Amino acid sequence: MGEKIFEERELILELFPGTSPELLPPGEVLYYRDAEGRVHIQENPLHLVLEPLEPLASTTPIICEACLRHISRSAAGFFRFGVGQDGRRFRYVALCRDTESCSGTARPGRLREILLRGILP
């Protein structure tokens, strides 16, 4: 049998389990939309779920916070996620409705930044 290969993140978390997520090297960031329309951003062990908001009628273009492209209001989706212990405060983000095409151009560092804003206080 071959030797098991460990990722850098796994080694750090094994040796230093209390390491802040901000200090870990970037891992694989998953960015997808589920059947209910919620957007998920995940980098093990962190996972952020963003709730969709009702679209507003407007013609103003928007910048997607994941891929940083200018998109039409009809191609944009607005999402929110709770912050803090009580979850009574929210942060709002504008993202492409088509997360599949957006994930191809979104930079992992930018997705990780959105994820950490939702996870860390």
Quick gist of this model?
With 121 residues, this protein is α+β, with helices and mostly antiparallel strands. It is 22% helix and 30% strand. It has a 5-stranded antiparallel beta sheet with strand order 1-2-3-6-7, with helices on one face.
Written overview of the protein:
This protein has a five-stranded antiparallel beta sheet, covered by helices on one side. It has three helices and seven strands. The protein is 22% helix and 30% strand. A hairpin with a 6-residue loop joins β4 (62-63) and β5 (70-71). By secondary structure, it is an alpha+beta fold. The protein is globular, with a radius of gyration of 16 Å. It has helices at 8-15, 99-105, 108-119; strands at residues 30-33, 39-43, 46-52, 62-63, 70-71, 76-83, 89-96.
